[in-house]
Amino acid sequence: MATVQIFDQDKNQVGERELADNIFNTEVKKYLLHDMVRYQLAARRRGTAATKNRSAVAGGSKKPYRQKGTGNARQGTIRAPHFVGGGAAFGPSPRSYSFKLNRKVKKAALCSALSARFQAEKLIVLKDLVMDEISSKSFDQFVKRFDLEGVLVVIEHADPKVELSARNLKNVKVVRSEGVNVYDILKHPNLILTDAAVNEIEGALEK
Fold first, then answer.
1. Which of 34, 51, 77, 122 to pair with 21, CA 20 to 30 A apart?
2. CA dist., res. 59 & res. 77, Å (int)
């Protein structure tokens, strides 16, 4: 099994642990990562773009002039798309951009993302992460101790002190283990997991 060092918040090694190979050291399948990122970003789209078609614009549908004898082309309504003030032709309408991905695909994509960080030696495991108070300065010092730029921190449960301390830091994000996702892992070059968060992730993905 893959082995990783465990550090404390002062970057002192305090032990080692084994990681499940089928989660943290599996083959990185880029096409799955691509599909999952598309899935996540598509689900975030509001899909509210809309234009008025000829039935929605103001004005009546009365024939503007008689059919024959005027020398003009035949017209049925001034609300047709080719008239100024007419309805839009083939314009956007509210829709959902989301699409379906199988559960196995989502699971395999997350394993690929975690494995990519482990294989690139960009994964750090902490024994625990505790903040005495809400302090962005203290959290920034903690990140700088590990010489990291752009980091996703995964904790095992809700911790307002940790989450609020990291909220205003650039290129730093804290998520709980149940919310870890492919997009955030790929967006941040480095990944920090608490030891308990590793247990939570392995327990969820091995089901």
1. 34
2. 9
